[in-house]
Amino acid sequence: MIKKFIDKLLGKSASSAKSGKSPLGKRVEIQVAEHGIDPGLLDERAVRVVQTLTDAGFEAYIVGGAVRDLLLGMRPKDFDVATNATPEQVKGLFRRAFIIGRRFRIVHVVYGRGREHEVIEVSTFRALLVNEAADQVAGNEKTSKDELAGKSHVVDASGRVLRDNVWGPQIEDAARRDFTVNALYYDPQRQLVVDYHGGLADAKKRVLRMIGDPETRYREDPVRIIRAVRFAAKLGFEIEPKSRTPIKKTAELLGNVPISRMFDEMIKLLQTGHSLASLEELRKQGLTRGVFPILDAVLDESGQLREGVRGQFVRRAFEDTDRRVAEGRSVAPSFMLACMLWHDVQSRWEKLREQEAPVPALQQAIDQVFDARIGDISGRGKLAADMREIWMMQPRFDRRSGNGPYSLVEQPRYRAGFDFLLLRADAGELDQSLVDWWEDFALGDEDERRALLDQVRDTQRRGAKVHRLPRVREAGDAIAADAPTDESSEVAPAKKRRRRRKPKTDGAPAAGGNEPA
Hints:
Strand content: 5-15%
Largest sheet: 8 strands, mixed
Radius of gyration: 27 Å
Strand order of the largest sheet: 1-11-10-2-3-6-5-4
Distance between the termini: 60 Å
């Protein structure tokens, strides 16, 4: 009994005890001649954090996904640091450092200000503990707040870790990480990689392998299922069979994860430049429906994007997002989400317009979609405001008279609304001539703008066909709504269409729908 208890404390399973194999792995130091990491790919601020910690007498390494990407010859987007210093000790070494988190307490070391600021995330080495040794609560983060207060290691009834703030040595910290390729430590000063679980070999073989028993690890944190999908799609890795087998069985545990955390994981899944590959990987792992309510709005029962205009529109939005990420341009989740939920809004809007005026009906439809698909998440207010503005702008593009066009092009989010309109035209939802007219109007001088407005007015006087949104029903598609007024028509622009402005090349973000608001 005593030996079993000690084994549990050390994280040893029955099978590992019998085989004599330690779950902690074995420290292997890999020199630059073998790992080949290019120091030119390092972030100087991350290196500065490591140096500050080591100068203060602590151990410190660049860790996790950054090391994995460096081994693959990729420049990491983010750099994390792991150390044996406690959060309070880390905070005391930097001028702008903040301790955050309850489930895992970490330190954000901040450099710069505004949009140009950078955050280096610093975590303390954590001890390897098993669920049997943890405190257990019946509820979750919200329902068991009082029980969680003051405790360092807590799990819920399903084995999901709610608190994990027990510090330990690096060898245990490595064992509690998820995949072998994410359990690598890099010392930039000695150019040394520390590997406990064969992560370097798996990176070379392009394999995702869970450390420890996969089912147990998924139960500890079901979000690891989504991380497996994201890494496989992003890196082109295969999920090792033993790590893949329990995914479908444990997927139901994702329902216990807080909505806000699941929402963040979905954004990461779709905005890292591999959105279409991520959808395919979800389908491959049997996670087509019921994981993300927003994705349910755009996928059919087989996990594919819907047929027809609706599917084409979302596909083009994903392709546009992937292209912008590949070009190093910024993307905004509000634009992508507005694209994903547009036809959901349209279908509800069509029904509500039977009893309501167009604009109030659209506002109600938007509220219904927010409640049904997004729910109560942190930051929903700003996100919802941006999405609402893009959607509410669409009927205004059909009103091309008076001062309306002048005020519309002056809106701060006009470019996002226009790019949304352009995607709709590219997908065949409306006529390209409407997009051409607005592009010419936005880029034209005062005389050109007056000429464009005169064309619309003259065409209406002649009784020409008024431009309306198409009302073509397709299987699974929403009905595109009619234009709310008769103040627009299908008119060719007065001049040859201008070329759209090219994105800036000096590092400043280019105008476009995927830019942050």
